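hey so u asked for the seq, here:
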Amino acid sequence: MNKSIFGLMTIATFLLFATTTNAQSKDKAAAEKVVHAYFDALNTSDANKVVSLFTTNGVLLATGAPTATGTEQLKGTFQYVFDNFTYTLEETIVEVTVQGNYAFVRSTSKGSFVIKASKQKVDDDFRELFVLQKVKGTWKIVNYMYNKSK
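ran it, structure tokens below
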């Protein structure tokens, strides 16, 4: 009898571990997909798409700029950026950690941006930290911070 209980407990533990691991893998992939979508929207200068990736109270912590909080400020900030700059950045996901309804994604990006007024092209590279929150089953950016690598 004890062997049967031990066997059932072992199988149940294995199934729970396998289910948890599979769910975490799916969550990691979904979080990465949001970050890739962010860079796609950035590279196509699509302010509406960028803002749609954030929670309604999302926060952008950009180097040298005021903090943008909430949909309205995010929209204004990204619209200003896209009115003045065009980006061509290629991102690399460095690390993804999922903890319950939160995911933390570290990435790097390299490429360039063009200052529209002067048509000057500037090569640059950045480090990014995205904090995502699962909202109604969908991963959204709740906090995003970046700075230059050098």
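The domain at 28-148 is CATH 3.10.450.50 (Nuclear Transport Factor 2; Chain: A,). The chain is about 40% helix and 45% strand.
lmk if thats what u needed
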